[in-house]
Amino acid sequence: MRKAVVLLGALALGLVTSVGDADSPGIIAVRGGESFVPNALIQSTFRFSPGQVEADSGQILTWVDEDRAAEEPHTVTLVDEADLPTDVEEVFGCQAPGEPCDVALTAHFGGGPVIDVGSPGLDAPGDSLLFFSGESISATISAPAGSTLFYLCAIHPWMQGSIIVR
User: Fold this and answer.
1) Exposed (0-12), middle (13-18) or buried (19+): which is 75, by Cβ within 10 Å?
2) Staple 129 to which of 76, 106, 110, 148, CB 3.0 to 4.6 Å?
3) Domain coordinates in residue numbering, the chain
4) Which of 1, 145, 108 is nearest to 9 (CA)?
5) What CA–CA distance (Å, rounded) separates 29 from 51?
6) pLDDT grade, residue 62 (50/70/90)?
7) Residues whose CB falls within 8 Å of the CB of residue 80, separated by 6 or more in sequence, listed in order
8) Which residues is 139 bridged to in the sheet?
9) Nearest of 140, 80, 134 to residue 116 by alpha carbon
10) What is the pTM of this model?
11) Assigned CATH for 26-165
């Protein structure tokens, strides 16, 4: 009897998970929060969820701010895979003058929430979207099928994701 209850529970969880995924195609959430203890700790759990998505060329994706921190803006900034930070030093180095995060933030604060360096839509490193707390932003994936787009938040460079273009 116990095995049957466990099996039914697992099947129900699988159904809820698959229905939840089907209800929100093309949605990437920003989740997490931050904590600070002077002289001891800075912790951030900001992340893109899911971190990797598949999308058709021409499909619209939407990033939604669902994080728990107030007033935290985020970006979706396309970068070359080699420019994704892989350690703490690279996270802080991303915002150094001339580095990808610095370039994106300078462009946003001088030009607005959408930066297109390639064709309209998301298709080339340097393309970037800026959105604020409680907002969402959408963009068309204009990269050709077979591409993989790598992105990060230029404000919080440990937040990273990728889009596999079908």
Assistant:
1) buried
2) 76
3) 26-165
4) 1
5) 9
6) very high
7) 125, 150
8) 61
9) 140
10) 0.83
11) 2.60.40.420
CB atoms within 10 A of CB 21: 11
Q: Determine the Cα–Cα distance for residues 54 and 79; give it in Å rounded to an integer.
A: 17
Dump the DSSP string for the chain. Answer: -HHHHHHHHHHHHHHHHHHHHHHSTTEEEEE--EEEETTTEEEE--EEESSEEEE-TT-EEEEEE--SSTT--EEEEEE-GGGS--SHHHHHHTTSTTSHHHHHHHHHHHH-SEE-SSSSSB-SBTBEEEE-TT-EEEEEB-SPTT-EEEEE-SSSTT-EEEEEE-
Cβ pair 146, 163 in contact under 8 A: no
